[in-house]
Amino acid sequence: MTPRIEINGLPADAPALAFLAQVNYGHFTSMQVRDGRVQGIEWHLDRLERGTRRLFGIALDRDCVRAWMRQAVGGGSASLRVTVFSRHLDRARLERPVEIDVLVAAQPARAPERSPLRARSVVHERALPEVKHVGTFDLLHHWREARLAGFDDVVFTTRTGAIAEGSIWNIGFWDGEAVILPDAPSLHGVTSRLVEAGLATLGVPCRRREVRAGAYTGLVAAFAMNSGSAYRPIVAIDECPFADDPRLAALIDAACATQPWEAL
User: In the chain, how many domains are there?
Assistant: First the structure.
């Protein structure tokens, strides 16, 4: 497909893009669209609605946003990002509710990424981890530092050592019988929700509990989840190795396959 960037349903213009580039305040959601269909579309819209109320103090018109998403994709397949920001933001009166702008960016669809990851753990707690906000400087900086140190990516822990999430992904573990999701503060990703719902459908246990960095006794595998892939094996965190188990990959794929692809 031809990439498209639209704001409020119209082609994006330079002044609007310049504002978005200079004022780092907003939130977004990303997804993969296949033939005009998305898994977990209501969760994506819920995320946008909650973020809009939290950051801008107003309601989101879900139907309008969904129509703009359909328009950008045109019934085809794409990697889609929806960003909510506001050109009406007044830094002298940030407490006031303001009218929002919605940027929809459609890029060619991506195949799932399955190459294994070696992650370095770093103590770092994101601001407002429950909001998928546009403030990604810290994520990219720690990711870059991990790359410079010879790792592929970074996994964040709290100050007490509890694992929370990866740079732009949620993390899951496998103990041979159940999927374990860390319960430290993090963004509850839509792909993670899809995996949880699918595992429940299959009757496979999925539990949330504290997982501490370096204390992985009984956890035989680990994987990353985001909008680009529901299963990307993590073969090591720091110096601790994990198995790249094809049976776990098949299980996560089967769990995701139970979740419907819904029309935008």
Answer: 2
